[in-house]
């Protein structure tokens, strides 16, 4: 279904680069760590 891909192009914000999966995973991991870590060090 190449026509569907052309008619509905995914924005770069929602579609991470497939050649850098490690960077995407690391980014999500950092986001999860920041959300789960309690900010009591301040």
UniProtKB/TrEMBL annotation:
This is Uncharacterized protein. It comes from the Eukaryota. It comes from Rotaria socialis. Residues 10-20 have a biased composition (Pro residues). Residues 1-22 are annotated as: Disordered.
């Amino acid at each position: 279904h190449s026509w569907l891909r052309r008619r509905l192009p995914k924005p770069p914000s929602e579609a991470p680069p497939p050649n850098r999966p490690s960077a995407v995973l690391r980014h999500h991991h950092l986001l999860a760590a920041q959300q789960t870590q309690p900010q009591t060090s301040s």
